[in-house]
Amino acid sequence: MTGAREAGPPAAPDAQAIVASEVTYSGGLRLDLILNAQFPHLGAHDEMLFIVIHQASELWMKLMLHELAAADRHLAAGTVRPALKMLARIKRVQEQLTQSWNVLSTMTPVDFLAFRHALGASSGFESFQYREIEFRLGYKRGDFLDIYRRDPATHGRLKAALEAPSIYDRVLMLLAKAGHALPAEVVKRDWSKPYVPHPAVEEAWKAVYRRPEASWELYELAESLLDISDRFQHWRHAHATAVERVIGMKPGTGGSAGVPYLRRALDHRFFPELWSMRTAL
Ligand code: HEM
Known about the structure:
The structure is a single chain. This protein is mostly helical. It has one domain (49-280): Methane Monooxygenase Hydroxylase, Chain G, domain 1 (Up-down Bundle). It has helices spanning 25-28, 31-34, 47-77, 80-104, 109-113, 128-137, 152-163, 167-177, 184-187, 199-210, 216-247, 259-264, 272-280. Helix 8 packs antiparallel against helix 11 (216-247) and helix 10 crosses helix 13 (272-280). The protein is globular. Bound molecules: protoporphyrin IX containing FE.
């Protein structure tokens, strides 16, 4: 016995061993862990803001993934109404995430320069939860896995998300089950490959939107997904603007071109046929 602990999250308290009368606010929420996880490297005043905003965003992303996983289980089982409830919560979380840029925008370029060099090459680019959300929503880019090659647990987790059907794939399977003619290349494909928009999917959505009363749940699901896609763009746009306020057109710590890289992401849209069919209707 060396006494060395394996890296990884601390063990959850044993549910059997918890006695309700002994639960405290701090203990139940593990505030000892959360509130002791801020370590400003240089002690620059705004370093605390930078750390807290990232950590809070990661917590909200954790909740999004929790809701996405449950929504996925419901859609796989064909129980659409509970899935809609989870998607509604995801939208609210996205609004929280987008609001957080208002707090960040109180940091000026000089405030940031006081500690930027301490960040080294680290960047939000490496956020594995963000990448998992993109994968779960259907933006599959296997090349991102390479970033995590030295971290088998994270690599495995993202690989599983890459290879699983996305929430959009699940909804398309429901569309096919409801009698819309979708080809195998849409509903039985290699899920790890990027989704390629298909005219048959656009036709199916057009049919749903023309007669919503015939398949109300699919119609509601489609509008919910569109809300999520829309809010994702709001977050990306607000991130790019907040970043430009702080670093102008300098390259990012992660090695990208910075704001131009972030703006390029605005060209990507989740659930493409839900957008394109609006022109075709
Ligand atoms: C002063 C604050 C911030 C600056 C200057 C900044 C800057 C950047 C830059 C330049 C990139 C592009 C990659 C690179 O070269 O580094 C990036 C990516 C990213 N950042 Fe931020 N960021 C800030 C705050 C945040 C916060 C609070 C979050 C919340 C988690 C975040 C999440 C991300 C994510 C997820 C990406 C990857 C985006 C993608 O690949 O499409 N960033 N950031």
